[in-house]
Structure formats: C-alpha cells, structure tokens
Amino acid sequence: MPSHRYRPYQDRVNVPSQERSWPAARIERAPLWVPVDLRDGNQALAEPMDPERKRRFFDLLVSMGFKEIEVGYPSASRADFDFVRDLAALAARGQIPDDVSIVVFTPAKPELIDRTFASIEGLPRAVVHLYIATSPVWRDVVLGRSRAQVYDIAAEAAAHMARLAEARPGADIRFQFSPETFNLTEPDYVLELCDGISELWDASPDRPVTHNLPATVEIATPNVYADQIEYLHRNLSRRDSVILSVHPHNDRGTGVACAELAVLAGAQRVEGCLFGNGERTGNVDLVTLALNLHAQGVDPMVDLSDIDAVREVVEHCNRLPVHPRHPYVGDLVHTAFSGTHQDAISKGFAHHARRAAESGVPESEAPWEVPYLPIDPADIGRTYEAVIRVNSQSGKGGMAYLLKTRYGLDLPQRMRPDFSRVVQDATDDSGREATAKELYELFATAYLAPGRDGDVTLDAWTTDRAPDGAHRFVCTLQVGDKAGDFEGVGNGPLSAFVDALAAAGITVDILDYSEHTVEADGAPGEAVAYNEAVAYAECRVGGVTRWGAGLDTSVLTASLQAVLSAVNRAGAAR
C-alpha cells in the first residue's frame, strides 16, 4: 500500500509543547451533552428525516433530558427552516420546557445569518451557531483566503449576529462559534479567532459564549486532540466567560476516546449523535459516552433507563440499524456464548444476589460486580433473559443458568457436564444457537422422558411404614415385555424402591441424589410450574453410571422417576 503518500499529523499541524495536566485528571461530573442528530446527523442520511420523524426525534431528546438540542441548518433548506418555525410555535404554546435551548447552525455569510435569525423569530431561547473553516488546506483549497481574510469574514459575521440579537431585546439569544477543521488549524490562529469573537460578543460569566472545537476529520491519536484542547483551555482570554465545547468525528474510530480525553483537558460541552450517526464514520456517540460515565459511578444526567425504546425511535427516524455489537446497546453486548464467560457470569449473578441479601438492600441498589458485564443490564431496561445464550461454544454453566432462571431447574454440579454433552451433540449437529425452550426440551427428552416411558416402567405402586420403622415398597414393574409384582424394604421409600428393583433383577446403586421445588414459571403452555418438584439421581446400573431426573407434583413420584430414568438410560447405553 502507498503509505508514503500520507503525512503524519505533526507535519500538518504544530501542537505547542506544554506540561500536560489532563493525564492526571478525572471525570467526576457529566459535561453538557448536545445532540446534533437533527442537523449533523440528518445531513448524513441518504434519506433525510421528514417533519414527522424530526418531531419524534426531537421529542425523544427532550424526554431524555438534553438541555441544548441542535435542530437544523435553517438557511440550507426549506425543510430545516420550517421545522425551526414549527418549534417556535410549540414554544409559544408552552410545549417546550423552559430549560431547553434550541440551537441553529449558520455559515459566516450575512444573508444566511439573516435567514437563520428569521427562523428563530418567537423562540424565547436559542443558540445561534456560527462556523467557518479555518485550517490551511481549507483556506487554500476551498475558500481561497488568507488567515487575515478568514479572520475578517468570521469577525464581520459575529458582529452582524450581535446586531441582530440586539434588535430582539426580549429574546434570550446566545452565541456559539466553531472554527471548523479546528484539529488541522494552527493553535495560535484558533486562539486569535476565538479571543477576537469573545470580545465582539462581549462574553461575560453571566452570558458566556460557546467556542466549539471540532475534530472535523480525525487525523491523530486522541492524546493529540487532548493537547490541542488543553492549549485553548489554558490560553483563552475571558476563560470564565467561555463554555469550551468539542465536536469529535470518528474517522480513526477513536471519537469516544477523543471526547473523553478532551473533557479531561478542560472541555465542558460535547456535541455528538445518539449511537454515533454522522457523515463518513459518524459523530461521536453520546450514548456510549454517557453510559461510560454511568459505569464509573458518575450520573450521566440523561435518562437511558429504557435503552430499547430510545433505540427504536432512533432506528425509525434514521432508518439505520444499531449494530448488534454496539457498546451497551446492541442486541449481543450483554450476551455470552462462551462457556467460560457463562460460568463466570452465572457465578457473578449468584454472588451479587447473596451480597444484596446479606446487606439488606434490593439487588437493583447493591454495588455491581459481575464478571464480563460492566453495568447491570437492568439499569438500561434490559432483562437478563438474553445474557446467556447457548451454542456449540457454550459450557455447562450457561446451560444450567438458563434452565434455572427460566424453568427453575437447578441441576446438581455433578450433573451439569452430562447435560452439557447432550446439548453439545445437538448444537454441533445443527450448528446454531439453542434457545432456552430448546434446552428444556433437550433436558426433558434426555432425562424426564426415560423415567416415564422406557424399557423399565413403574405401572403401580404403594408404600407404607412397618412398626419397626422400615419402609416397604410394593409395585408392579414392566421390564421389557414382562410384567411382575415386586416388593422391597429399606430405610426410606427410595431405598425400598431400589430393593424392589433388585428383586426384579435390576441392581441399582444411587451415587448422588438431590431434589428441590421449582422456583420459576415456564413459558405459557410449558410443563414447569411452581407447584412441582424436581429430583435428580445419579445411579450405577449393571456397571453403567447414568443421571436421571423426574418432575411431578409429588416429591416421591419425582424421585422414583429420576431413578427409573437413570435405569433406562443405563440400559440403553448397554
């Protein structure tokens, strides 16, 4: 590949050397998030949003708690202009919260600024966002202007905006400036531009201006962007009157890292899109950024508690799917197929439940420490049903977890490898995932069915207790095509049954046994219910060891079925 054609960032922009403070900083509060889905994201769609989709997206952003929302480029299209006018009508009827500011975008051209101000007529609160490209390649190739000429264009536009705002004394109109292609622009020139515009707009602590510094096209590693942001953060005049904002794109796939390091370096505001939509590889993903903070114990200050509802609206409006491996949100990000992962997650859930119970707090409030899951899926409205899914790569822990959580069947540890082999055989043959329902069906076929219908069946039985305390078991057994009545004695009904089997010529040693009541409902129409008991028995039968299981409303009947299941499975093996 002709890599020699491309210059490294240090040959394209000089970042002043300085002693960095951002590597030692921590993010302890959320920045101001500003979604640009309705402007930057919308202009990146093959089919831009119609008014219905735009309104639905806007309502979503308001409901999530965003306080500044960039809604369009009103001088660029009639659709964007009309949408801003619709919002002005909503505001006049009190249908936009008082703490939400509408942001509109304009280039540095007087006639387009006039059109932009016309669009916001009647809005009680608005931010007018002025931009101009500033880097050498844009100045030379696109604008054909010198540094001084670009400065004059930006200053004249800023002054024109100030005059238009002064003519509307009743409106709360604030200003924002973006030196587009900031990350490719000489830092001293950006400083000169921003300081000059701050002065023109008379920035003050009670009426700050926003200086937004875009990584319009990523050119370097995120630490370089952080250095550029920190240089402005340290050197801007009227710093207490400036909201320092960033707008990272994702050309190198590091938009999230750029945004996080920029906040460490002094940025107070981040522009981006939900799920990262935007031109080329997209804008920075605000959902990932917010949930990264949540995972560190910092309130993201936006409501993501029903992430699937958010995703449904965004997918409808953008007509783009969210990737199944998207951080936090994709269908598969909380899912483990690997056996080792499943085992760790299953143990983590059990440990979490124990710790919550010991602390006397609900599981939803207890500190979260579950392997492979950085956040509790329930925090964002996800259930645990899809956390563990089974295919040919899965292990015994995941299969046992699904049977327990969905059907209340808590397989003994020693039985789990045996069931794992049953599932592996099925999934290896099919090459696809096994659902929880299919796992239950495999379990029922392999372990429950042989206890009810096999070569050896229990046709009728009674049990009683002798005066000496011994148990007597009387039964009719069908062995192959022969039936007979048999009797056994033991210290319990199950041992008496084993003695009756011996009388029929079937020698059984019970190596392991456990039972429990069912603690979960199955899906509608399935057999498992709260009033049932399940028994598991590992038996040696004629030199062959097999597990069996039984399920019944009677614990004793379930235990007899478990032993018979092991007997029939051992007989089939022989």
Task: Describe the protein.
- The two termini are 63 Å apart.
- This protein has 17 helices and 14 strands.
- Helices cover 39% and strands 19% of the residues.
- By secondary structure, the chain is an alpha/beta fold.
- Helix 14 (416-430) crosses helix 15 (436-452).
- The protein has an eight-stranded parallel sheet with strand order 1-8-7-6-5-4-3-2. Strands 9-10-11 form a three-stranded antiparallel sheet. Strands 12-13-14 form a three-stranded antiparallel sheet.
In short:
The protein has 574 residues and is α/β, with parallel strands linked by helices.
Secondary structure blueprint with pairings:
Blueprint: E1 32-35, H1 37-41, H2 51-64, E2 68-72, H3 78-92, E3 101-107, H4 110-119, E4 125-133, H5 136-143, H6 147-166, E5 172-180, H7 187-200, E6 209-215, H8 222-235, E7 242-248, H9 255-264, E8 269-272, H10 286-294, H11 307-318, H12 339-359, H13 396-407, H14 416-430, H15 436-452, E9 456-465, E10 471-479, E11 482-490, H16 493-503, E12 508-517, E13 533-541, E14 544-552, H17 555-573
Return the structural class: alpha/beta
Please compute the radius of gyration using only Cα atoms.
Answer: 34 Å
Helix content: 25-40%
So what's the overall shape?
elongated
Q: Low-confidence spans: pLDDT under 50, at least 5 residues?
A: none
Question: Total strand count, please?
Answer: 14
Strand proportion: 15-25%
Distance between the terminal alpha carbons, to the nearest Å?
63 Å
Largest sheet, spatial ordering of strands: 1-8-7-6-5-4-3-2
